[in-house]
Amino acid sequence: MSSDHKTFRTVIEPFTIKSVEPLRLTTKEERIGILEEAKHNLFKIKSQDVIIDLLTDSGTGAMSSEQWAAIMRGDESYAGSLSFQRFEAAVQDLMGFKNVIPTHQGRAAERILFSVMCKPGDVVPNNTHFDTTRANVEFQHAEARDLVINEGLDPQSRHPFKGNMDPEKLEETIKDVGVDRIPLCMLTITNNSGGGQPVSMGNVKAVKAVLDKYGIPLYFDAARFAENAYFIKLREPGYEEIPVKEIVREMMGYADGCTMSAKKDGMVNIGGFLCTNSDVLAQQEKDLLILTEGFPTYGGLAGRDLDAIAVGLTEVVQEDYLKYRLAEARYLGEHLAEIGYPIVQPPGGHAVYIDAKELLPHIPPLQYPGQSLSTAFFLEGGIRTVEIGSVMFGKIDEKTGVETPGHMELVRLALPRRTHTQSHIDYVVEVARELYDKRASLRGYKITKQPKFLRHFSAEFSPI
Ligand SMILES: *Cc1c(COP(=O)(O)O)cnc(C)c1O
């Protein structure tokens, strides 16, 4: 793995492996058939047909022995379980929010938050909305507006905090739209859809200062809060010596609440939560929770899941873990860049993003260059990645049927937590090298079938 800049030693995986899961090694011939069967949508492929699964880092990581031990401690009482108490204490200790509401995953927290806070015609600013966040805002007939800094839209910019929101764009939006129509502002840490890029503490403060002028609450989409905090430690002057846990606490101190997908920095396979400092909102949110998720002390999870999150939240802020985590992404990113891949620079925390628009200039955005590259990774090496471009974010005008492409055409190679060894990553680099030499022969796609919301999960494609 990349070497440590201080000691020049290899950053090793800070764990050993106690339980293994075999991989089935497919041939290219087999994969051609598998891809056709899946209508060229990688979400429709069975996991046993994938060799290295970099589709997502969401819920795909390995739990620690301490987490498995916590699973056995799980208290499955319907109300007031010990598991809930341990979960609530762990979240409050780390983040400091007053009300902690468990949900089965992040999007359930989003749905409840926006149902309670948004009305039709509202506008929700964010640095960049994640796909489920955008869909949940739009489901309330509100507008999800992305106000990331311009550097965040330029894959080659080396700005250290490309996830920052532009405070001037925010203030203009507030003046333009009117305070009454902005029920809350969100910041996604790290900015997943913008390349896994961090938000600086300085930017959190600047955004907060604008919002305070107008009395608008700030919420974090906190899925990768620990990775964000470690980037602050590495890159923001004044934080070099501050423990990550304290950085997290300071960050959260500027917010009124958060939504959290525990499938990311919760280090578990399922779970999430919603936090708020407002007792009034918390009550409304719990009322909705009971309707669809469950009683407020389990929120759609088992007691054992809550215990696993409680332990995961203590492990994710350990700095040896975070150092290894970021080194893995950097190692993959540096090697892909060396081959010649245009990647979003610098690599983010949980993934490496390839700029498919630049790599495949012969494929126009509405023939989905990202889709083409991600299916090619599968065919060449059984590697599953995900398109984050016009398949995911293209917008079809309901009246005219005209499609507008997304801002960027990216392919994400996401790294599940504590799951792959360095030789797995080296294999990915080898496949990428072979694919690079064939890039001019890749073809675009057309969509033959699609649903109205979140089409990338189930759309069908045919090669052009
Ligand atoms: C994963 C994710 C979500 C949604 O969480 P789920 O647990 O998948 O429902 C929201 N925001 C961000 C930034 C995410 O990465």
If you had to describe this structure to a student in words, what would you say it looks like?
- It is built from 16 helices and 16 strands.
- With 464 residues, the chain is α/β, with parallel strands linked by helices.
- Strand 5, helix 7 and strand 6 form a beta-alpha-beta unit.
- The longest helix has 21 residues.
- The structure holds pyridoxal-5'-phosphate (PLP).
- Pyridoxal-5'-phosphate binds next to helix 4 and helix 5.
The structure class reads alpha/beta
Provide the gyration radius in Å: 21 Å
CATH architecture of the largest domain: 3-Layer(aba) Sandwich
CATH class of the largest domain: Alpha Beta
Q: Report the count of strand segments.
A: 16
Helix content: 25-40%
- What small molecules accompany the polymer chains? pyridoxal-5'-phosphate
- Helical element count? 16
Tell me the number of structural domains: 2
Task: Give the arrangement of secondary structure elements.
Elements lengths: L27 H10 L14 E2 L11 H9 L8 H14 L3 E5 L2 H12 L5 E4 L4 H9 L3 E4 L20 H11 L7 E4 L12 H14 L3 E4 L3 H11 L8 H10 L3 E5 L10 E5 L2 H14 L10 H13 L3 H21 L11 E5 H4 L9 H13 L1 E2 L1 E3 L1 H4 L1 E2 L6 E2 L5 E5 L7 H16 L7 E5 L10 E4 L1
Bound molecules: pyridoxal-5'-phosphate.
Pyridoxal-5'-phosphate binds next to helix 4 and helix 5.
Quick summary of this structure?
With 464 residues, this protein is α/β, with parallel strands linked by helices.
